[in-house]
Design goal:
8-stranded mixed beta sheet, single chain, Rossmann fold, 8 strands
């Protein structure tokens, strides 16, 4: 999961409920001081939330972009039903299409191109959404796509085993018991991080707010997702592949090769791992704005 470096919203941002025909979604909405040069819709990954992008809000808004970061269905403050079928890639992609339409109506003025970004598992969701579009009946509503710290198919073996373990215990353990077990596993693995109390409390609260059926469905998908890069390449949407210079979930070499197959720009963020959005937000924001401005 991403660990946000802080939780205080910049002056440009506020928490909202994004109303769509498929329900309401919790979101962070950040506005530039003048007319936006574009709008960015940011989609978090497995066990994540809109707060994963909190450190990007100020630099992206300062660069002139309206930003909307969301909780997907089943995550943190959005919630969802106790039905595993609600969290497959198809319904999550339909949620995203509905959110994209709602984001376009947030401001009465023109908001410029709409740029779509998916982090980690969110990369699967944005890909599914793009692949569901095409033709006059369903035009692609986005001007660009960013795949952040995600890969062409299933996660690396180590992460797949962690996901499989989580999926196996969800039917027999509650989320608090799983949290305590994960904390103990991290300590045994030598994780000595001392997080600020407010961040540690947030991570705990966010974990407990997940819908267990969503965790199970998403965790399982991480281990079985097929390579669909060729289909995505055929969509011919301007694409950026961005990751930290090291990544435990998908090898950086695999992500770079994916960029080549997509004909996409590829950026490796120095000093970052799986969450450049939280670990090196200024450098990440600069790479994003450079790409978005090249599209517009």
């Amino acid at each position: 999961m991403s660990t946000p470096p802080f939780l205080t919203l910049p002056a440009s941002a506020r928490s909202i409920r994004l109303a769509t025909p498929r329900g309401e979604f919790a979101a962070l909405h950040s506005l530039p001081s003048g007319p936006p040069q574009g709008t960015a819709l940011l989609v978090p990954g497995f066990t994540g939330s809109k707060e994963d992008f909190i450190a990007l809000l100020e630099p992206l808004t300062a660069a002139g972009f309206q930003v909307v970061a969301v909780d997907q269905r089943g995550q943190y403050e959005t919630g969802g039903p106790a039905d595993p079928a609600a969290y497959g890639l198809e319904p999550l992609a339909l949620d995203l299409l509905a959110m994209s339409e709602a984001v376009a109506g947030l401001l009465p003025m023109a908001t410029g191109p709409l740029h779509l970004l998916g982090h980690s598992f969110g990369g699967y969701v944005v890909r599914e959404a793009v692949l569901r579009c095409g033709g006059a009946a369903a035009p692609v509503p986005w001007s660009s796509l960013t795949l952040m710290s995600t890969g062409p198919g299933a996660v690396a073996d180590g992460e797949a085993k962690r996901a499989e373990l989580l999926v196996s215990v969800l039917p027999v353990m509650d989320l608090q018991a799983i949290w305590e077990a994960m904390q103990e596993m991290d300590r045994e693995a030598g994780d000595q991080r001392q997080l600020p109390p407010e961040i540690a409390d947030f991570l705990h609260r966010r974990w407990l707010a997940n819908v267990p059926e969503a965790l199970a469905a998403m965790g399982r998908q991480l281990t079985v997702e097929p390579d669909r890069v060729d289909a995505l390449a055929a969509a011919a949407l301007p694409t950026l592949v961005l990751s930290g210079e090291q990544d435990y979930a998908w090898p950086v070499t695999e992500q770079s090769a994916m960029a080549g197959r997509l004909g996409a720009r590829c950026v490796l963020v120095p000093g970052a791992g799986h969450s450049p959005n939280a670990e090196q937000p200024e450098t990440t924001a600069a790479a994003l704005t450079d790409f978005w401005l090249s599209v517009t």
